[in-house]
Amino acid sequence: MDALSQDKVEFVISIAREVSEASPAIIDGELADNKEPLQYSELSLAAKADVSASEDFAADSAYQEFKSVINSMNDEERSELVALMWLGRGTYTKPEWQNAVTDARDASNDHTAEYLIRTPLLPDYLTEGLSMITEEE
């Protein structure tokens, strides 16, 4: 990683963990408000969570902090962060790092924070990617 520091990645991982820990609370709240929780299926809960995620996250201070940190990064840092996530989930291998960064740069837009936070297992993928990129050859 040339533009992105390990400390910044670790900070993003910690915030992403906070946001992901709050997500089950959103679904639990939906269940608690309903008198007949059996009418919910796993698919309907997933659809509800996906549709309302932006609104639910809007009030979440951890999400706001996550979004702020991502938006304060320069283009190269954001590209490396997305590439790191792709590396951690196995989309790219370590020798393909530069290709991943290039592809992330080409796909870059104003919605990087939303893209990242909607990625299941984001903190785990970033942790794995960071581990792969920092390991000795």
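The above is record 1. Record 2 follows with the same two-line structure.
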Amino acid sequence: MCWVDELRLKGLLLYVAVAPGSVAYLRFHGRKAVKWYNHDQVWEHHSYTYPVAELPEWAS
């Protein structure tokens, strides 16, 4: 199972993170709103540095 953290925009899937075991795989895709739909290269909307304030929700 792989969960993806991404920008929370209307039309995108909401996530529910419940690990079926002791290991979970999470991809941090970023939350860069300005480049999510408007980009020339796909990497542009993933080019995001998570501030420390956004990480605690995933710590547990």
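The two ends are 17 Å apart (CA to CA).
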